[in-house]
Amino acid sequence: xxxxxxxxxxxxxxxxxxxxxxxxxxxxxxxxxxxxxxxxxxxxxxxxxxxxxxxxxxxxxxxxxxxxxxxxxxxxxxxxxxxxxxxxxxxxxxxxxxxxxxxxxxxxxxxxxxxxxxxxxxxxxxxxxxxxxxxxxxxxxxxxxxxxxxxxxxxxxxxxxxxxxxxxxxxxxxxxxxxxxxxxxxxxxxxxxxxxxxxxxxxxxxxxxxxxxxxxxxxxxxxxxxxxxxxxxxxxxxxxxxxxxxxxxxxxxxxxxxxxxxxxxxxxxxxxxxxxxxxxxxxxxxxxxxxxxxxxxxxxxxxxxxxxxxxxxxxxxxxxxxxxxxxxxxxxxxxxxxxxxxxxxxxxxxxxxxxxxxxxxxxxxxxxxxxxxxxxxxxxxxxxxxxxxxxxxxxxxxxxxxxxxxxxxxxxxxxxxxxxxxxxxxxxxxxxxxxxxxxxxxxxxxxxxxxxxxxxxxxxxxxxxxxxxxxxxxxxxxxxxxxxxxxxxxxxxxxx
Length: 496
Prior knowledge:
By secondary structure, this protein is an all-alpha fold. The protein has helices at residues 2-11, 20-27, 29-43, 48-52, 54-69, 74-108, 112-131, 136-160, 180-194, 197-201, 207-238, 245-248, 254-264, 275-290, 293-299, 314-325, 327-351, 358-381, 393-417, 422-429, 431-448, 456-495.
């Protein structure tokens, strides 16, 4: 058992990542799938087959290409699948435009006065739509699609990494480099920042509202995250489950990081701002670069270097050993907190602000992306390599840049077609539960079979079954939630 554990640990350690261009190719399964899916859902909205098979449609449009692109089949089959989706989307786009042109031609053939009135009404409506503020409903639509799609990528990688099907260059990097799983962890934090309560209402909140949201966040999010993190730690130690110590440390896991973010984020005073995360990352990066912290994170011992341990208070000694053993997880919270706060600020000024129209919001987002791209190139150019292990400034800039780009591409598609699948809505609403479920299913698969000996085609079938299970659970959770809400509203109406 111990030898097998060591084999599995060595399978996911010591990797250097891939190129940022190849990771973008994999990530483009998100906007391409959404473009194709939106057109299919819009064009076949009355199709009984499409409406009655949401799991099948989601698998064909999203899960299959994502699995292929996160596998050894990326070249050529993953690329071919994406090309086919692009062709289908282009043809449907052309067909939709053709129908609109035909409708306009028919309108011109009507009586002249009626045509003039209709044209005036249409122009007024178009101008009104162009100048209208970005409503929360529209924002919720494309942010929902973006979040659910990024969760798809992350969920697939969580399990796929244990199979030989998953290319080792996509595994979490050991020290420096670009890894798909590195981006997945950061994306989960960034998406949470985009939709945080402060991002949505931070500029109009009162102290009473902030206290109310903080209390609800503590009871509904923070306690469950700490509980899940502790349970994961205990079970992994108890069953000798494989561990990647350089990922977060010996005892730390990603649920603890999320708990820290949910603990600190809502309780920080004031509206979202770029100043605090910028200051925090600048100080942190200074210590990494000039204080020897980066070198210690990569090469330091997992023991506490105290000259006189017998004379040191037991509590202080325990904290010192815990910090040394889990330095990646503890110090990584600084980078992830900065990512969360900066994403929260972006959400508050460009995604949820009722004072901005669509064009202004788009310009701000593209401006943010351009600044992040330039800063990332400068940092890498001066020798600050991207490091997931320390969540340094280069890593944060690169991760946020990729997510802003993907969000903007999704936004462009949504503003044209405005379609959100049922599973995307359900997954977005119950994201944390589905994330926990994905981890539980991953553990169950690893304990049931030797993933290192599974054939590639069998691994694809297992991944599809795994994603189907998550999709079904998400739909069931959504149905239960809607039923409970309906019963609650019926009881209120009866009381009235």
